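Hi there, hope your week has been kind to you so far. Thanks so much in advance, here it is.
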Amino acid sequence: MLSLQLMVMINGPIGELQVDPRKATFGFSADLHGWAFTLKEFAEMYGSKFQIELDKLMNHLWDENFFSSTEKKWSQTGGEGYLHGFCQFVLDPIFRLFKAIIDCKKYQYTQLLEKLNIKLEDDDRDKLEEGGKSLLELFRFIHSP
């Protein structure tokens, strides 16, 4: 179970600032690979699929919220068949895409790129054939805010 809460409060001359993934004021990043994303980017990708307001979906993707693919329902208590929203819809796709790229499994990573609605420029399509690290770097370049 993912139980990570991050709230930073800063009071100063510009007022109160809050760092909160649900408000897109916090980014997740991997320094080693040089990429970053916000929760809002993933909520925008999944918004039409779930037919749910962006703010509500961002809340579902954070905190203790679970989704059942079979029941197509969200729950705050989880249970059998429910997976943590952040893990299921954010981390798992990233991990699967990276693994497919590193393993040079073109069919898998092209399917994932399509599902994640990541569009490649024509010039970048040539790099798909190279696979491995160069494709991982291409993904990083495309997906970094």
Observations:
- Confidence is low (pLDDT under 50) at residues 1-11.
- The longest strand covers residues 8-12.
